[in-house]
Amino acid sequence: MRTVRTQDQGIQMDLTGKQAGRGAYVGAYADCLHKARKTKVLDNALQVHITDETYSSLEQHPVWQDGSYPLCCNEGDARV
Q1: What distance in Å separates the CA atoms of residue 25 and residue 4, rounded to the nearest whole number?
Q2: How far, in Å, CA of 60 to CA of 74, rounded?
């Protein structure tokens, strides 16, 4: 799953993989996002502080609810 830092320093999911902005990838399993949150790997990759509110918003997306995103990594992989 690709996440993108927007011009206003916000974070968005990029389902197309073509959205403009600094991007980072994280696996499409809830465990991947939780691991990325805990280690702050997305914060570092996107060079921005990601708030708990933003992480909570990302966690609510259906992609991380069922792991159905077609380009997902191996379960438990939180590489960026």
Answers
A1: 9
A2: 20
- The one-letter amino acid at 61: H
Residues 6 or more apart in contact with residue 36 via CB below 8 angstroms:
26, 42, 78, 80
Q: pLDDT tens digits for 25-80?
A: 988 777 888 899 999 999 999 999 999 999 888 888 777 666 555 444 444 444 44
CA nearest neighbour of 3 among 75, 32, 68? 32
Q: Taking the model in full, what pTM does it have?
A: 0.71
